[in-house]
Amino acid sequence: MNAERQRLLETAARQKPWRKWGPYLSERQWVAIRKILIVAVCMAVLCGSVGLLTAGQPNSQSAKSTKTDPLAQFNIERLTVPRDEIRSGGPGKDGIPSLTKPKAIATKGAKYRADERIVVVTVGKETRGYPLAILNWHEAVNDVIGGTPIAVVYCPLCDSVSIVDRRMDDATLEFGISGLLHNSNVLLYDRKSNALWSQIGLQAISGPHVGKSLKHLPWRLTTFWEFAKQFPKATVISTDTGYRRDYTRNPYTAYFRTDRLMFPVSRRDNRLKPKTAVVGVKIGETTRAYPVETVRQARKGRIVEKLGESQIVLHANQNTVAVIEAPDNAMVVHTFWFAWAAFHPDTSIYGQTPTTQEARTTQPQAPESDK
């Protein structure tokens, strides 16, 4: 009997319902039970986070979403996504509250952990940081920086970061969280038309702007320590958001520790592990994924290459991933591989040979946790 089994038996002995059968379990049965318990804990933690994410939100429509068709709350005219691929993520419309023009403070006065991941945006001469500690709970920030209205959008389920100029045609859009998912990726809605937008690519999938994408802006994903060191005069959004949230707690920690998905995607691609971090780039109809670890291992942690007729420059080190150069018409997002591949099944992968590129699976698959 190994030490771990002995420890489990001793724990079981203290639980009355286990006393009768605990000593008779085989090694294989103990391993199976342990795996089941690990999955159950992960599911419980993430599902429990739904309540935490919506706590204290006065205009949450979570209750309504369970009784009616959640799509009925939105403008789905000319919807480009099959309805059966859109599902509720748990919270209803605005159940996870986006932020608009949040309070910003000097970097020196901020009390974030040194290793806290933070999205950094520079527009003109102004630089601001958006910690994932806040984005985990709000997912979208409507802000103005350098005189430009921007949206910083994050999907925790995909570890997906995108930053866009909120201006479309003659309108400045403001985004809220719909409570819906497509390919395990959050769907936003703009408050003016009530139409739905995909977070990856920030493209309208319904309503008056259907098929159109907002202009993407350069970004870097780094640690608060690196941010404060490189941009000492920058600002960072404050935890004083007006909502009661424990911004020191990450509700997705258990989810990030496994390759399992919580929600289904339309297709799966096995060329990379599902939660491999990549920088996805789309220019016109050309798409390519750059694994972050591949960028880190490149000479000087930098990749410079032509994608179509345009030059792409990416940088990564132990703490930072950054878009150094990309054309104005490029879509550049940080995300997990499973999400990028689901939306862009024909994508190439930087550093892989044509033979490797063909070794893929693209059939629809349910989340692993449902198997």
TrEMBL record:
UniProt keyword terms in alphabetical order: Membrane, Transmembrane, Transmembrane helix
TM segment ranges: 36-56
Region (Disordered) residue spans: 351-371
UniProt xrefs under Pfam families: DUF3179
UniProt protein name: DUF3179 domain-containing protein
